[in-house]
Structure to design on (401 residues):
């Protein structure tokens, strides 16, 4: 092991505050705030693995496969990683190169993944970047994903794989509590969107951030994703830039998802969770005015208030349905307090959502409230008209017009 790597090895053996280790072919050390990247070319990997196994401070491990001399014969290295219980983030990078043995991620990558399959409860973040994925590699990736049930973040970006392999990945993470997935540059296409839709439609889905940029997704895949979010209440951020659809297609698909205006009920049950949609690199320019407004509105945590504001903005409140509430006029009139109460609560919603929306304002609310009351008065004028005589202080007096 070269001079710099020996220094790294000593730090790991001492069990000091080193919390990040990068194994790559760089011939230098960069160290700051407990972060350290080092060359291990020609190094004693078995000894390094033994030190990693005993270390309780190491949190993040990064292995760049290109150019390092680590091989599957260094069994002590893989065994050490298997024994470690402090690493919560593992990143594997292959730089899209085929290793000397003719495989993609290669035997070394497979052995690294195997090391996390048995002792897996501590791993919360897994990253695999720029690797050529063959059937053997995908088997180990799927097995690792199935085993690591405490994963919160999955970054699987710019890897060379086939559509059927991606389906195996989706099945492997089904039922997990993963909150963030980055699949940028993975070429999942429309078929991959159909597989992801089954996850997003699941009531137990916990994904809050999903990056699908540069994935050859067309209009069919776009609509599939949009439809899958109809009843999803977890996804907040969706990145779709560098795909095969235009701005207007995204506007049509997601504006209707966020605010279905076909009826008041449809608006009430629209998606009020998705608050960030990146169709282009500049979100404000890539999304239309209406879509930007709806996304910004959805940033509010009070979903009842959001539903009220959308109803006020996109609907004329028609009281006609309430006129059939009862067979007698008195029953119809009892509906009026509920209507007035709803408008009063809507006024409170406007105040709560003021940082997220400038519409509607209190004046618009008052106009719609008076309009609703006027509809009642038109249908039931006798119940609103004054009687010919009013009782005042226990005495009856004639009405003065």
């Amino acid at each position: 092991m070269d001079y710099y790597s020996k220094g790294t090895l000593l730090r790991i053996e001492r069990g000091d505050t080193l919390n990040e280790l990068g194994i790559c072919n760089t011939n230098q050390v960069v160290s700051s705030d407990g972060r350290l990247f080092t060359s291990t070319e020609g190094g004693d990997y078995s000894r390094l693995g033994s030190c990693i196994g005993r270390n309780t401070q190491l949190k993040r491990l990064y292995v760049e496969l290109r150019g390092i001399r680590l091989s599957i014969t260094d069994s002590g290295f893989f065994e050490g990683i298997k024994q470690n219980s402090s690493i919560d983030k593992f990143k594997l990078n292959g730089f899209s190169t085929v290793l000397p043995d003719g495989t993609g991620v290669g035997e070394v990558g497979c052995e690294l993944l195997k090391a996390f399959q048995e002792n897996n409860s501590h791993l919360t973040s897994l990253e695999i970047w720029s690797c050529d994925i063959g059937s053997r590699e995908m088997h180990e990736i799927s097995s690792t994903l199935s085993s690591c049930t405490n994963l919160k973040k999955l970054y699987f970006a710019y890897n060379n794989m086939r559509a059927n392999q991606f389906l195996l990945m989706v099945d492997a993470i089904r039922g997990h509590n993963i909150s963030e997935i980055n699949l940028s540059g993975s070429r999942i296409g429309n078929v991959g969107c159909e597989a992801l839709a089954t996850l997003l439609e699941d009531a137990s889905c916990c994904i809050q951030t999903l990056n699908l940029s540069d994935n050859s997704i067309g209009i069919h895949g776009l609509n599939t994703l949009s439809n899958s979010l109809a009843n999803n209440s977890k996804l907040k951020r969706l990145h779709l830039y560098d795909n095969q659809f235009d701005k207007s297609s995204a506007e049509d698909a997601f504006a209707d998802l966020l605010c279905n205006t076909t009826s008041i009920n449809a608006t009430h049950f629209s998606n009020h969770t998705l608050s960030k949609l990146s169709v282009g690199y500049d979100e404000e320019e890539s999304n239309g005015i209406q879509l930007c407004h709806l996304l910004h509105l959805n940033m509010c945590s009070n979903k009842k208030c959001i539903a009220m504001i959308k109803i006020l903005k996109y609907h004329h409140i028609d009281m006609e349905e309430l006129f059939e509430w009862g067979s007698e006029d008195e029953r119809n009139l009892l509906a009026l307090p509920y209507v007035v109460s709803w408008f009063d609560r809507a006024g409170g919603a406007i105040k709560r959502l003021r940082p997220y929306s400038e519409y509607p304002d209190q004046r618009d609310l008052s106009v719609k409230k008076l309009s609703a009351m006027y509809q009642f008065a038109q249908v039931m004028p006798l119940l609103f008209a004054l009687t010919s005589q009013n009782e005042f202080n226990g005495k009856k007096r004639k009405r003065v017009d």
